[in-house]
Each structure stands twice: as C-alpha cells, then as structure tokens.
C-alpha cells in the first residue's frame, strides 16, 4: 500500500487503522447485510454508533455533567452564525478576539447579529502573536467572549485560555482532542471534524446546558441548539458516515493512550519542526511568536517564493504532499494533526535539511 505523508490542513490525514476498519465494514456493516450508510438513522445499528461517538467524546475530553455534546451539519462555519443567534439577545453584544483568518470570519457573522466589542486585534502583528490570556476580559453585559483556539492558516495557538466573566466560546476546529483541557472553562466548544476527528460533514458542539435556554423560539428549528439537545442530535438525518468515521478515529485515539499521550506526541512532532527551522541559519523562518507557535499547523517561509514552489514540488516527488501554505498568506504550512506519525515529521525534517544545503 503506497500511502504518502499527507500534510494538508483539512480534510487531513486520518489513522490508517480507522480507514481500514471502515473499508472492511463499508459493504456489509458488521454482518448486518447492508452498509451503515444505507441503514436508517433510527436503526439500532446506527443508534449504537451515534451513542458511542458522543460517549467517547465525553470520555476523552472529560466533559462534565451539565454539558451536552451535539453532532451537527453545516461545518464550523455554521457555528459562526449559530453562536450569536443562540446566545446574544436582540440588541445585545458579545466580545471577540481577532487572531487570524478564521476569527475574522466568525467576527463578520457576529457583527450581522449584534454589537461586537473587539477585545484583541492582532492585525498590527499580521496575526503572528496572541494576547496574554490574563489580559483578556469580557466587557459589561457581553453575552459571551469568542476565541479561536488554533488559527489554522497563521499557525498561532492559545496555550492557556482566558478566564472571563462572560461564557467563553471557542472555535477548536483545528486542535480539538490534540491536548487535555478543562471543558468547564468554556460555555461552548465547537469544531468541524475534518482535522483531528474524521472526515468533513459533522461538527461537534459542546455546550453548557444553561446556555441552551438562551435561544429565542423565533429561530428556525435547525438553527436552535435546543432542538438538537432535546433530540440527542437526531432531529434530522445526521451525517451518518462522518459520525461513524469519527467513532473509529476516537477509538484509535483511546488506544494511543488518550489526550495526555497525544499531547506529548504532538509537542514532540512540533518541536522537531520548529527546531529544524531555528537551526537552519535563517534559511527557514517562522514568523510566529515562539510563545504561541501552533503544535498543529507549522508555518514557515523560505528565502524566496520561487524556492517555496520548488520545496513543495520536490517534497511532493518524495511522497510528502499538502505543504503549500494557504493561498491568502503563501509560504509553507505543515499540518501535523494527531494522525500524522512522527516518522512523517522526521522525513520532512531531513528533507528540509538537504533542501537547505542544496539551495542556501
Ligand atoms: N475554524 C477553523 C479554525 C478552521 O480551520 C476551519 C476550516 N479550515 C473553519 C473554522 C471552517 O470550517 P468548515 O469548513 O467546517 O466550515
């Protein structure tokens, strides 16, 4: 089997064991005589998958009682609108941190629905740093404060989180389940699945139950968190195949030793890359403040755009794909989510060394 090392930012590499398990079951799901994706979402077969997925998320993240785990469609992008629609009353306000491209999109949607106080604007630093979490406070009467725990495009990641008066809402699309965290610090955590969790198509929302009561009845049913909490995320047909894949990935994560072990591996992989950049005699350059460098998306530049193009092409020829930085910022981006093995990162590091020697 010729699998390449896949550094795409999302959809992203998945554990091969999870893919093989899905392949084995695709045509005949566990001897049922039909595929899970042909099975009613009200069947006992699907129900077991649905329930196990929610339970695994709760177990791995240590979700305390008083929180609901929802499995929704619409991508993390839909949460940019659903959070303000559900949490902010008409004429209300919220606080946001502008830390990069994804925070910017969340901000644009929130502005359509209420008043937004910007409590941090990283635009001046071209989004290469973050505020000290201790300095981030919510403003009076704010419905919530929103952060993006990991900016997938700029490669900046909150290492600790602000403690705020207003409920803290976090877009964790690109680092959920990469490290342990205290869910009780948050009012809402949401994440599209297609980086650390599985394929695209399902979005995880973890919401503190008292916040479910804020949603106005005037919201269309699907856009109201209460609808999904009440129906156990079976109000309508859920993305069954994506959810099944998420379950397989979560089982793999559990076999790896859970979030503590995963965080250690992720830090080690990221350190290998950042060290390679720092010791390259400035052939490679990471623009991000060392305090906030992402363990998930490692971004760096080469001496010229021409060399960056060659880097991507030559890496591709040796079986490492997806290294081109996001089109809005350029450069190189190595996305090294949970499922990227250390060998993939080591291979990239040795490629970086020989490429630098050849072109310095
Ligand atoms: N937030 C972050 C941090 C992301 O990385 C992404 C996707 N790359 C999104 C939101 C949007 O996710 P989706 O495509 O699932 O809407």
From TrEMBL:
Look up the record and name the pathway of this protein: Cofactor biosynthesis; pyridoxine 5'-phosphate biosynthesis; pyridoxine 5'-phosphate from D-erythrose 4-phosphate: step 3/5; Amino-acid biosynthesis; L-serine biosynthesis; L-serine from 3-phospho-D-glycerate: step 2/3
The protein's Enzyme Commission number: 2.6.1.52
Which residue ranges does UniProt annotate as crossing the membrane? none
Catalysis performed (reactions):
O-phospho-L-serine + 2-oxoglutarate = 3-phosphooxypyruvate + L-glutamate; 4-(phosphooxy)-L-threonine + 2-oxoglutarate = (R)-3-hydroxy-2-oxo-4-phosphooxybutanoate + L-glutamate
What InterPro entries does the record point to? Aminotrans_V_dom, Aminotrans_V_PyrdxlP_BS, Pser_aminoTfrase, PyrdxlP-dep_Trfase, PyrdxlP-dep_Trfase_major, PyrdxlP-dep_Trfase_small
Tell me the cofactors it needs.
Answer: pyridoxal 5'-phosphate
Question: Quaternary form?
Answer: Homodimer.
Q: What is this protein called?
A: Phosphoserine aminotransferase
Cite the source lineage. Bacteria, Pseudomonadati, Spirochaetota, Spirochaetia, Spirochaetales
